[in-house]
Specification:
CATH topology: Rossmann fold
Shape: globular
Distance between the termini: 15 Å
CATH architecture: 3-Layer(aba) Sandwich
Strand content: 15-25%
Number of helices: 6
Radius of gyration: 15 Å
Number of domains: 1
Helix content: 40-55%
């Protein structure tokens, strides 16, 4: 877990990073303390990932929430050549279709579990309204995805 410039990034138990902006209080202090303890336990282990050519093999990114904030995230991801937005989770089918067409996203899903099962993303960004944020984080955390070691 890293706290950088107000953005809290949590690496879940299954290796899928969840990027959170300003909603740490919705997750609960216990979850944050557990993540910090996990980080502390692995702090002294060497981390040498194999080299990766991100131009040839960009990070597979999924977005939860296709509203205004989600679309800002899509625009940001599209600025980088090392990311590939592979899916959007949006319960509103009309909005999901419009977002996919506007930004060229190949897949949309109505729920997080279906997206995680089908896409195996390496990065999940959550851009939902606050009332739905906690559940999205918990769903990603329960995912059996093993994209990132």
């Amino acid at each position: 877990m890293a706290l950088m410039n107000g953005t809290l990034a949590v690496k879940t138990m299954h290796g899928v990073p969840v990027l959170m902006a300003g909603y740490a209080s919705l997750i609960g202090l216990d979850a944050i303390e557990q993540a910090l303890a996990s980080l502390e336990a692995t702090r002294h282990q060497p981390m040498h990932p194999p080299p990766r050519d991100f131009e040839k093999d960009p990070l597979r990114v999924a977005l939860i929430g296709g509203g205004r904030l989600g679309q800002y995230y899509i625009e940001a991801f599209n600025l980088f050549g090392d990311t590939n937005l592979i899916a959007v989770v949006e319960p509103n089918p009309e909005r999901a279709k419009a977002v996919c067409e506007k930004f060229g996203v190949p897949d949309s899903f109505r729920d997080t579990a279906s997206m995680l099962a089908a896409c195996n993303p390496e990065v999940v960004t959550i851009a939902t309204p606050g009332a739905y944020f906690k559940e999205a984080v918990l769903q990603v955390n329960r995912s059996p995805s093993e994209s990132i070691e």
